[in-house]
Every structure is written in C-alpha cells, then in structure tokens.
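$ run holo --ligand "zinc ion" --emit tokens
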Amino acid sequence: MIDQPLLPGLDEESAPFFEYAARGELRVQACADCGVRRMPPRPRCERCGSFEHRWDAMSGLGTVWSFVVPHPPLLPAYSEQAPYNVVLVELEDDPTIRLVGNVVAGADDRLDSIDPHSIAIGMPVEVVFPRPVSDDEGAVVLPRWTPA
Amino acid sequence: MKDQTAVAGIGTTDFAKSLDDSERVLALKALKAALDDAGIRPGEVDGLSCYSMEATEEIDIARNMGFGDLTYFGKVPYGGGAGCGVVGQAAMAVATGQCNVAVAWRSRKRGSRSSRPWAGVSSRVQGDQQRWSRPWGLLRPVDEIAMLTRRHMHRYGTTRDHLANVALAFRRHANNNPAAVMGDREMTRDDYMAARWVSEPLCLFDNCLETDGSCAVVVTSTERARDLRQPPALLHSWAQSLPAQHQTMTNFFCDDPLRGPAWACAEKLWSLSDVGPADVDVAQLYDAFSPLVPLSLEGYGFCERGEGGHFTDDGGIELGGRLPTNTSGGGMSEAYLHGFNLIVEAVRQVRGTSTNQVEGAEFSLCTSGEGVPTGALLFRRDR
Ligand SMILES: [Zn+2]
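-- output --
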C-alpha cells in the first residue's frame, strides 16, 4: 500500500490542465470549432465532431454542488487528515463544468484545515493553487478551493 | 426474444466472510449445482457468459466442468453493472441459435484484505474515471456514491431515515434466509444511526458486505426448460444501458448526474415487455450502497423522480409492502457477489421457492449496478 498522496497520471489530453495549474491558471478544454467546453478533456467534440480544441481561462469562482466527508479506512496519506471534505465545484463561468477538489483554509493547508461540517451545497468558493506535489514521475499542482 | 428463453437451473455455494476454496473452485461448485438443479449434463453445455472481472478463464471452466464444444462465449464489463447483461447475453445466444445451453456465473472472494480496491494501487491514477477525483481524496466507490447521495438529499429531501429504511428492510429479509451472511444478525434503527461513518452522508450500514462465494445459472430455450426438473423462469424482457455522456462511478460531469444508467435501461426494458413497473410483483435492486435503491426505484419507474427515498417509507420495500425488494437480503445482508445472488433470488421468486416468497409472484425484476453501465432482467412465471 502506498503512503503518499495520489497524483493524476497524465496523458496527451489531461496534461495541459495541470500545466496551466502550475502557472496559477484554471483553464478548461473547449472545442475550437463550436466552443462547447468539456470535462474531462477528450480528443473529440461530442457535439460537432471536431478534433481541434483550445483551453479557455476560467475566473476561478464556483459553488459547491455537493460534498462528502470520508472517514478511514483510507490510504495513509489521506487517513491521517480524515475526516476531511471532498467537494464537487460547479464553475461560475460555465455550470456545465464541475471539478472535484477540496475546500481548505489556505492553498497549502491540510485537508482538515476547514471543519468539514462548515461546508454547504451552494457555498461560493475560489480556486487556489498549492505548491506542487512530487513523485518520481515529476511534480503536479492540484487546484484546490477556499471559501470565497 | 420475449419469453423464448428461461433460467432452468440455479446454483450457489455457501456465502461467508471467508471460505477456503479458491475463486475457481467456487465457480465450479456453483456451476455443478446449477446444472444438477436443472438436470442437464455438463456435456450439453455449449455456451458460457461471464463478467470481464472474472478471474478464471473460460477454457479453464469448460475443461474442468467437462463441457461440450462451446459455440458461444462472451464477457460483460463494469463489475457490478455486468450481472444482468451476462445472463441476458447468454439468453440472446440461445434465442438466436448460437448455442443451446448456456451457463453464467460469478465467483468472488472479497473477505481477504489483499483484494480491497486500493491493494496494489500506484501513486499515479490513470483513466478518466479516477484521475479527476482520487488525488483529492475521493478514493473509494462509497465516496463517489456519497457525492451523488448528498446532492439527492439536498435536492429532494431524501434523509438518512430513508437510507435506514433500505438497510433495515434488507436485514429483516436476511433474517428469514438461513443462507444469508447476516441471517442471524438483527439490526435496529438505533444501530443504523449509531454506526460509524464511512463517507458522510453514508455510514457502515449503507455499504454491502465483503463476501466469498459463487452463484451460477443455466439458460436454455423455454421449450427445453419445460421438460426439465424445475419450473422455468421465463426471461420476459432484458436490457443493457451505457447512457450518453456516462462516466463510470463519477457521473459528475454530465448534464444531469442524478439521472443514472437505470433510466435508459428501464426505457429499453419496458419497451421490450408486455408490462410496466406497476405489474412487477417483486424486485431485486442492485445494492452495493443503500442510496442506489431509491435511485433505481426512480429510474425503473416505480415512483416519480426524487421520490425514491419516500417510496421506502411505511415498509414500502419490505415483504407485504408496495414493492418487496431484495427478498434474500441482497448485497447488504445476504452476500455481495457483484449482484449475481440477486439474479438467483429473482428466479426463486417466480419458482415460488424464496425464503421470503411473495405470494403468486408473476413478474420478478432484477437490476445490475446503478452508477455504471448496467443491465436488467425481467423474469416471468411460466403459466
Ligand atoms: Zn465542437
């Protein structure tokens, strides 16, 4: 069993999201032809069939669509911070886009830095970018959220 | 293929937290029991169908069982979403003449800790199902379902009492079923409310059991089944669905995350059937987690959207209620074998041999996992 936080495996479609995050930008993939945004990033637009895409900058504002409070047994890196919150955030710029994340007191604070029972559906949040987390495949910035 | 095929035999092993036999041996024992139940010789079997997650290879099963020349074999993916499709595809192969006698089974050992979801997990999460959620600590299937449950509670007023209704109904049914892992364990509403959290708003008793065991069925033509040992369970209608925009378990990114795979499956199931939800006498609804039951009640049309929680009030899903559900105790109190024991129980109900028999049951529904590409079977008692 691993004892470090999990990181996303990156492929051609997913990597740019995290590259923008490392620069402090929240961007979402959109079709370059019809403009429809999509999550997770994919090679082809399901609406118009285009393989061309762009990455649209988002304001970083959103609201909590739902949340859970996991309790152990969990992987060790998460268990020692439990109970914590995991939220699904609906973006203000485009409510069709939702992102899984955590609400924390500050970008680099622990997962339990906010009382998970203070979270509520509809709560406004704002994106923050913590320091990168590294493993032997490299470093990744996982966007997180603070109360807005 | 309406009513053209039937389940002619059912077989199960013991269900327990831990069994000595391997998954392979458990599969062979359940298959032997199902063939004996039907009164069919293994050499007559020429088709087989299984979950893609099944560990034992088809050639291994066929050789150990002494099957004849197989002319149909197939697999269905997505874990708990597979079961009904596994049986439905076996029946489709019989109905189209690809084979004459098909078997389907699920064998599973989950008592051991080494088989838990994150055993052997590496630090990098691959695939869109998990890459966009697990790094933030949404680690387990229960966490993924809890996210949808919280939203359902917020939107429709579903409560923990509704989820307790589900857990308590299935426990009570299990208490009448000597084969159930929880057969002799009683549960009260206080027990439910006092249980430890697993992923708020879901507690320990919102989760299915970790079980070792195996179940199997034999499918053949209705005509042939009528000459065999048991009353045939006619396959009146069946369906699968992998709905538009769907993403396994983390259906968070589609237009309407609370409209799960049950909806598309139900549309097909009823369209191929002579009847509708009001004609179903008894149901086995996939219950890896308690909230899947209200979601399925809505999806299959037993109530309006958002009313799934309320449907469980006043004994709605208990024996004698509006829709007796998971009459063997289901995945939460009989055994969790990726839903295959639900199929076996659905057959028993139209045979009239359940330990919680619904009197005169004519139509018996079974569903596979909600939250993943799924399937459903509607059995009919033979006249
Ligand atoms: Zn497009």
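-- notes --
Chain B has a mean pLDDT of 96.
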